[in-house]
Amino acid sequence: MGEEDGEGAKHQFIATSPEYLSFGHGLHACPGRFFAAAKLKMMLAHIVTMYDIKLEENTTCPRSLHIGNLIGVNPTAKAMFRKRARYGGIQ
User: Fold this and answer.
1) In a 10 Å sphere around its CB, with 0-12 CB exposed, 13-18 middle and 19+ buried, how is residue 78 labelled?
2) Structural contact between residues 42 and 32, judged by C-beta atoms closer than 8 angstroms
3) Which one, of 82, 72, 14, lies nearest residue 47 by Cα?
4) What does each C-alpha distance from 42 to 15, 30, 49, 67, 75 come to in angstroms?
């Protein structure tokens, strides 16, 4: 995504721009955004390796929530998490 046109960094979570102000922009950009991105990746990796995740029984994928040009997760969606059996010494 963007690699072929030389704009690869534009699409990174930690990149700042006037259109994406979650971490500020310019001189006031949050210096902790790199730590936040690394921590989110670690949490996601932990969840997908340690848990089985699926939607509730007998449900279809809920519609996404659209607010302006933003798309988010439907807050009424219900997911089920089950801790996986231990493997390879990792707890």
Assistant:
1) exposed
2) no
3) 82
4) 19, 20, 11, 28, 23
Which residues have CB under 8 Å from 65's CB, separation 6+? 71, 72, 73, 74, 75
Instruction: Answer yes or no: is pLDDT of 85 > 80.
Output: yes
Strand, coil or helix: 35 = helix
- How many residues are given for the chain? 91
pLDDT in tens, 10-67: 667 777 888 777 788 888 888 888 899 999 999 999 999 999 988 888 878 888 888 8
pLDDT greater than 60 at residue 90 = no
**Ramachandran sector of residue 74 (left: φ over 0; alpha: ψ -120 to 50; beta: rest):** beta
Please name every residue paired with 53 in a beta bridge, in sequence order, or none if there are none.
81
